[in-house]
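Table S2 (text version). Query chain:
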Amino acid sequence: MLYEKILYKGEEYQLYLFEKEYIYHPSEAGVRSIWPATEPLEYENSYRIDERNLILQSVFINANTNTIIDDIKGYSPKVTHEGDNQKICFENIDIPLDYSGAMIIRKDFIDKYGYEEEYPCFCYKVVIELVFNEGCLITAIDHSRAMLKIRKNIDAGLRDPKVKRDKKCINNFINSSFIGEYKWKIRQNTNKKTFILLRPFKKKKVS
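Corresponding C-alpha coordinate output:
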Protein backbone atom coordinates (compact mmCIF):
# COMPACT_ATOMS: atom_id res chain seq x y z
CA MET A 1 0.00 0.00 0.00
CA LEU A 2 1.49 3.34 -1.03
CA TYR A 3 1.08 6.47 1.05
CA GLU A 4 2.36 9.97 0.58
CA LYS A 5 4.28 11.09 3.66
CA ILE A 6 5.32 14.45 5.01
CA LEU A 7 7.71 15.45 7.78
CA TYR A 8 6.21 18.30 9.80
CA LYS A 9 7.90 19.68 12.93
CA GLY A 10 10.12 16.62 13.12
CA GLU A 11 7.25 14.10 12.99
CA GLU A 12 6.05 11.95 10.10
CA TYR A 13 2.44 12.21 8.93
CA GLN A 14 0.36 10.62 6.20
CA LEU A 15 -1.11 12.90 3.58
CA TYR A 16 -4.84 12.33 3.35
CA LEU A 17 -6.74 15.11 1.55
CA PHE A 18 -5.56 17.83 -0.78
CA GLU A 19 -7.30 20.40 -2.92
CA LYS A 20 -5.49 19.58 -6.15
CA GLU A 21 -5.30 16.24 -7.94
CA TYR A 22 -1.75 15.76 -6.71
CA ILE A 23 1.03 17.69 -5.00
CA TYR A 24 3.81 16.41 -7.25
CA HIS A 25 3.46 13.89 -10.08
CA PRO A 26 6.50 12.16 -11.66
CA SER A 27 5.14 12.99 -15.11
CA GLU A 28 6.23 16.58 -14.43
CA ALA A 29 9.79 15.30 -14.85
CA GLY A 30 8.97 13.23 -17.92
CA VAL A 31 8.49 9.87 -16.14
CA ARG A 32 5.65 8.12 -17.98
CA SER A 33 4.41 4.80 -19.24
CA ILE A 34 4.58 4.35 -23.01
CA TRP A 35 2.60 1.09 -23.09
CA PRO A 36 -0.12 0.96 -22.14
CA ALA A 37 -0.07 4.73 -22.29
CA THR A 38 -3.15 5.04 -20.07
CA GLU A 39 -1.75 2.93 -17.22
CA PRO A 40 -1.33 5.13 -14.11
CA LEU A 41 2.05 5.33 -12.44
CA GLU A 42 2.23 3.63 -9.06
CA TYR A 43 4.28 6.00 -6.97
CA GLU A 44 4.93 7.36 -3.49
CA ASN A 45 6.37 10.76 -2.65
CA SER A 46 7.90 11.93 0.60
CA TYR A 47 7.91 15.61 1.58
CA ARG A 48 9.11 17.77 4.41
CA ILE A 49 8.52 21.32 5.56
CA ASP A 50 11.76 23.21 6.05
CA GLU A 51 11.48 26.77 7.36
CA ARG A 52 7.91 26.91 6.05
CA ASN A 53 8.96 25.72 2.57
CA LEU A 54 7.47 22.56 1.05
CA ILE A 55 10.29 20.27 -0.08
CA LEU A 56 10.08 17.11 -2.18
CA GLN A 57 12.46 14.65 -0.47
CA SER A 58 12.07 11.46 -2.48
CA VAL A 59 10.05 9.74 -5.20
CA PHE A 60 9.53 5.98 -5.33
CA ILE A 61 7.94 4.45 -8.45
CA ASN A 62 6.83 0.90 -9.27
CA ALA A 63 6.64 0.61 -13.04
CA ASN A 64 6.84 -1.78 -15.96
CA THR A 65 9.80 -1.83 -18.31
CA ASN A 66 7.87 0.33 -20.81
CA THR A 67 8.25 3.35 -18.55
CA ILE A 68 10.36 6.28 -19.71
CA ILE A 69 12.67 7.51 -16.96
CA ASP A 70 14.16 11.00 -16.96
CA ASP A 71 16.16 12.81 -14.32
CA ILE A 72 14.29 15.00 -11.83
CA LYS A 73 15.97 18.41 -11.71
CA GLY A 74 19.32 16.81 -12.52
CA TYR A 75 18.95 13.94 -10.03
CA SER A 76 19.29 10.45 -11.49
CA PRO A 77 17.36 7.53 -9.99
CA LYS A 78 18.45 4.19 -8.68
CA VAL A 79 16.75 1.52 -10.80
CA THR A 80 16.39 -2.16 -9.95
CA HIS A 81 14.70 -4.71 -12.20
CA GLU A 82 12.42 -7.54 -11.12
CA GLY A 83 11.20 -9.46 -14.16
CA ASP A 84 8.99 -7.17 -16.25
CA ASN A 85 8.88 -4.57 -13.47
CA GLN A 86 11.33 -1.99 -12.28
CA LYS A 87 11.66 -0.03 -9.05
CA ILE A 88 12.70 3.57 -9.58
CA CYS A 89 13.92 5.54 -6.59
CA PHE A 90 14.91 9.20 -6.38
CA GLU A 91 16.36 9.79 -2.90
CA ASN A 92 17.41 12.95 -1.05
CA ILE A 93 16.56 15.19 -3.97
CA ASP A 94 15.33 18.09 -1.78
CA ILE A 95 13.45 20.02 -4.46
CA PRO A 96 11.34 23.05 -3.42
CA LEU A 97 7.76 22.87 -4.71
CA ASP A 98 5.36 25.68 -5.59
CA TYR A 99 2.14 23.98 -4.41
CA SER A 100 -0.68 26.40 -3.60
CA GLY A 101 -3.70 25.18 -1.67
CA ALA A 102 -4.59 23.26 1.46
CA MET A 103 -3.93 19.70 2.54
CA ILE A 104 -4.89 17.47 5.46
CA ILE A 105 -2.22 15.41 7.22
CA ARG A 106 -2.79 12.84 9.97
CA LYS A 107 -1.09 10.37 12.30
CA ASP A 108 -1.74 7.99 15.20
CA PHE A 109 -4.47 5.73 13.86
CA ILE A 110 -7.04 4.50 16.40
CA ASP A 111 -7.96 0.92 15.59
CA LYS A 112 -11.27 1.16 17.45
CA TYR A 113 -12.57 3.39 14.67
CA GLY A 114 -10.73 1.50 11.95
CA TYR A 115 -13.15 1.30 9.05
CA GLU A 116 -12.95 3.11 5.75
CA GLU A 117 -15.66 5.70 5.28
CA GLU A 118 -15.84 8.88 3.26
CA TYR A 119 -14.29 11.02 6.00
CA PRO A 120 -12.26 8.79 8.35
CA CYS A 121 -10.28 11.74 9.73
CA PHE A 122 -11.68 11.13 13.21
CA CYS A 123 -10.00 7.70 13.19
CA TYR A 124 -6.71 9.54 13.87
CA LYS A 125 -5.60 11.29 17.06
CA VAL A 126 -3.73 14.04 15.24
CA VAL A 127 -5.28 15.80 12.23
CA ILE A 128 -3.74 19.02 10.92
CA GLU A 129 -4.67 21.24 7.99
CA LEU A 130 -1.80 22.99 6.19
CA VAL A 131 -2.32 25.89 3.80
CA PHE A 132 0.36 26.82 1.25
CA ASN A 133 0.91 29.66 -1.18
CA GLU A 134 3.47 28.89 -3.90
CA GLY A 135 5.17 26.34 -1.68
CA CYS A 136 5.28 28.50 1.45
CA LEU A 137 3.32 27.38 4.52
CA ILE A 138 0.91 30.18 5.37
CA THR A 139 -0.96 28.63 8.27
CA ALA A 140 -1.51 25.37 10.11
CA ILE A 141 -4.75 24.47 11.89
CA ASP A 142 -4.87 21.62 14.40
CA HIS A 143 -8.23 19.82 14.07
CA SER A 144 -7.37 17.10 16.58
CA ARG A 145 -9.77 18.44 19.21
CA ALA A 146 -12.63 18.47 16.68
CA MET A 147 -11.88 14.84 15.77
CA LEU A 148 -11.85 13.96 19.49
CA LYS A 149 -15.31 15.53 19.84
CA ILE A 150 -16.62 13.24 17.09
CA ARG A 151 -15.15 10.16 18.79
CA LYS A 152 -16.63 11.16 22.14
CA ASN A 153 -20.09 11.50 20.57
CA ILE A 154 -19.70 8.05 18.99
CA ASP A 155 -18.53 6.53 22.28
CA ALA A 156 -21.46 8.11 24.12
CA GLY A 157 -23.94 6.66 21.61
CA LEU A 158 -24.96 10.11 20.37
CA ARG A 159 -23.74 9.38 16.84
CA ASP A 160 -23.33 6.20 14.79
CA PRO A 161 -21.37 6.59 11.52
CA LYS A 162 -23.20 3.55 10.13
CA VAL A 163 -26.50 5.45 10.37
CA LYS A 164 -27.07 7.63 7.31
CA ARG A 165 -28.39 10.63 9.25
CA ASP A 166 -25.56 10.53 11.79
CA LYS A 167 -22.95 10.11 9.06
CA LYS A 168 -24.34 13.22 7.37
CA CYS A 169 -24.07 15.16 10.63
CA ILE A 170 -20.46 14.08 11.08
CA ASN A 171 -19.63 15.04 7.50
CA ASN A 172 -21.25 18.45 7.93
CA PHE A 173 -19.27 19.04 11.12
CA ILE A 174 -15.99 18.16 9.38
CA ASN A 175 -17.00 20.27 6.38
CA SER A 176 -17.49 23.32 8.58
CA SER A 177 -14.20 22.72 10.39
CA PHE A 178 -11.90 22.55 7.37
CA ILE A 179 -10.80 25.61 5.42
CA GLY A 180 -10.02 23.88 2.13
CA GLU A 181 -12.50 22.47 -0.36
CA TYR A 182 -11.31 18.92 -0.89
CA LYS A 183 -12.14 16.68 -3.81
CA TRP A 184 -9.14 14.37 -3.82
CA LYS A 185 -7.88 11.74 -1.44
CA ILE A 186 -5.60 8.73 -1.69
CA ARG A 187 -7.47 5.49 -2.32
CA GLN A 188 -6.48 3.06 0.42
CA ASN A 189 -8.20 -0.15 -0.64
CA THR A 190 -5.72 -0.82 -3.44
CA ASN A 191 -1.98 -1.12 -3.74
CA LYS A 192 -1.90 1.36 -6.61
CA LYS A 193 -1.50 5.10 -6.31
CA THR A 194 -4.85 6.35 -7.58
CA PHE A 195 -7.36 8.98 -6.65
CA ILE A 196 -11.10 8.99 -6.16
CA LEU A 197 -13.40 11.94 -6.50
CA LEU A 198 -15.28 12.86 -3.36
CA ARG A 199 -18.57 14.65 -3.10
CA PRO A 200 -17.59 18.35 -3.24
CA PHE A 201 -18.07 20.26 -0.02
CA LYS A 202 -20.82 22.86 -0.06
CA LYS A 203 -19.60 25.92 1.75
CA LYS A 204 -22.18 28.15 3.39
CA LYS A 205 -22.38 31.62 1.94
CA VAL A 206 -21.66 34.43 4.37
CA SER A 207 -24.16 37.23 4.04
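Notes on Table S2: The mean pLDDT is 79. The longest strand covers residues 53-64.
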